[in-house]
Amino acid sequence: MTEVIELCKQLVNCKSYSGEEEAVARIIEAYGKSHFDDVQVDRLGNVCLVMNGSEAGKTILLDGHIDTVPVNEKKWQSDPFQVVETEDWLIGRGTSDMKGSVASMIRAAIAFKEDTNGNFKGRVVVSCSVHEETFEGIATREVSKNYRPDIVIIGEATDLNLNRGQRGRAEIVVETYGTSAHSSNPQAGVNAVSKMMDFLNEVKKVENPTHDILGEGILVLTDIISSPYPGKSVVPDLCRATFDRRTLVKETKESTLAPIQAILERLAKEDSDFHGKASYAIGSEKCYTGEVIEAERFFPAWLYDEASAFVAKSLAALHEVGIPSELSHYSFCTNGSHFAGEASIPTIGFGPSLERLAHIDNEYILKDQLIKASIGYQAIIKSLLS
Predict the structure, then answer these.
(1) What are the pLDDT digits (tens) for 172-184?
(2) Who has the most CB within 10 Å: 153, 185, 210, 270?
(3) 205-to-173, 202, 219, 235, 271 alpha-carbon distances in Å
(4) pTM
């Protein structure tokens, strides 16, 4: 199983911030052409590696993103893009989030084809996807369109447990409007920041929804700025605040925004000078291929019943190969927001390492977990295609 460790090192040693994944994509493409039946790079830069069975059947898709968040190299004890290997660990940006998992998926698909001599029904697709860190699930819309998977396995870290859902994520933008005036004569204007303070005092009174499994649908203020900025002897006529809202299953764009809109409407009735608007942030990201992806930043939650056949079979398969997985769920957002939340494709999560190791300085992964994850992926594939 040293192949999975060596592949992980090769991927981590290649810097690949979001929108700059081309070099690592080329490594995966070349590796795939040496081991897989088909390799395709789509217009957004997702690299998909395909193993075809001897007969028609289900398509099992394993998805792992190949972009990473940036680093502050001053806070690292070593070069984040030159793996440091110890007896137990690999240290480097992307080891846990999530090039280690990508390496484990690739090697699992190869091992499955070798063990079966290609005599299986269906196909296995490993999706090495782009721009997840900035835009969860948007780039993988292209993947599901091209391959139409029957079941998806998300490879984000689960500590080798089996995840059956996640909270979603929304970026909500609230703007309050005022009237500019010289700061020496503030009564001649309407201060947009003061109006935002009125809104903030009210929004913190809102009781967040909860789910018995996924937890609380939290709302957190993450950014606030006035205009003009910096203000120089002027009453600001605009204030813009951004909130991170962790959504729960069955919440829609409309229902998620409704409590905020209700506050804005009530404040406008109580104060003739209050004017505000709420909307979802619209993101636009350029892919390394030159294509641009754009969408509202609303990424749905999803959850599958533990009794669902594909969940139960996957869990049993892990136990059979000696991995004592328990059922759990992600606390953060993943590409599953598209596959499960938007496209309603049965989806599970399974991956090496811990959620809390994502994005940290001196990120690392245990080599033992890389090896076990690859064994686990192969077991899940076998169970779902049997």
Answers:
(1) 999 999 999 999 9
(2) 153
(3) 18, 5, 11, 28, 19
(4) 0.94
